[in-house]
Amino acid sequence: MATIHDVALKSGVSVTTVSRVLNNRGYISETTRNKVFGAMKELGYQPNDIARSLLRKQSNIIGLIIPNVSHPFFSELADQVEYFAYQAGYKVLLCNSQLDPTKEWDYIEMLKRNRVDGIIMGSHTLEVDEYLSLHSPIVTFDRKIGESIPHLGSDNYRGGQLATQHLIDRGCRKIAHICGNLKLQVLSNHRTDAFLDIVKKYGVEHLIIQTDMNVFDQRQYEILIQALLKEHPNIDGIFATSDIIAAFAVKECIRAGKRVPEDVRIVGYDDVGAARWLTPELTSIRQPIDEFGRLAVELIRMQVEGQPFEIANVLPVELMVRATT
């Protein structure tokens, strides 16, 4: 196996010069740089990234922990984080916690061992103290865990307002709100706060349906919606806090013989790509997933470089009106 000394000998430069080329430090002429890379290619030399990270105290790796990689929102978020991380010179280690505290902790320990430059936390099954003890740059998504740790999310309250107001404006007079378990301390609960404020303001009949603690278990969505339509056959509006739940609502309404949107109007949340694949196309609250990815990476970079940053990062939402309303 070739060593850095072999590369130096082959290219006719010092080991120090090879090291400077590898770490992109100091002035190196293009001729010298080409000699070094040519020797590396010819010898099949692979730099020891771990050793280099120990030397530079920077790995150029970001850890991303999400609760469910198969969920459209988190898969799109991961895609955007990776895209912007790569543009900024980082690689991404993707960790799929599946809402398992033990698994999430194991991933955090792995990321620490790999000396990642920072961690983007999209899964929050552990207690806040576990995160605060990391002593590494962190960005949290949809959860506030400390006064000095930046968190990122959409304007959830405004999203809830837009969705509920839209259903009322479309003539809905009995609206069901299907959401995650409100015992989870997440910022997306503000969507439910807004829903309650708007229906109470207009005196609209309403009810709230919560999932169990495993909010990503899609098997429960059918059961919940079937029970809703059976027990409340006069429901004429549904506001779901994810596009997946909304898609199940469309399917179950059609299965129950209800027309969408003539009998039941449905609004989802996130505006993932699949919202436009459905028939009828899904009305949804758009979260700026691309901007989430860009800003999450930027907040890690700012912390690594000691630059000032905002703690609370709330991005605007938009109502995307389509065929389900």
UniProtKB/TrEMBL annotation:
<dbReference type="Pfam" id="PF00356">
    <property type="entry name" value="LacI"/>
</dbReference>
<keyword id="KW-0678">Repressor</keyword>
<dbReference type="InterPro" id="IPR000843">
    <property type="entry name" value="HTH_LacI"/>
</dbReference>
<keyword id="KW-0805">Transcription regulation</keyword>
<dbReference type="InterPro" id="IPR028082">
    <property type="entry name" value="Peripla_BP_I"/>
</dbReference>
<dbReference type="GO" id="GO:0003677">
    <property type="term" value="F:DNA binding"/>
</dbReference>
<dbReference type="Pfam" id="PF13377">
    <property type="entry name" value="Peripla_BP_3"/>
</dbReference>
<protein>
    <submittedName>
        <fullName>LacI family DNA-binding transcriptional regulator</fullName>
    </submittedName>
</protein>
<keyword id="KW-0238">DNA-binding</keyword>
<feature type="domain" description="HTH lacI-type">
    <location>
        <begin position="2"/>
        <end position="56"/>
    </location>
</feature>
<dbReference type="InterPro" id="IPR010982">
    <property type="entry name" value="Lambda_DNA-bd_dom_sf"/>
</dbReference>
<keyword id="KW-0804">Transcription</keyword>
<dbReference type="InterPro" id="IPR046335">
    <property type="entry name" value="LacI/GalR-like_sensor"/>
</dbReference>
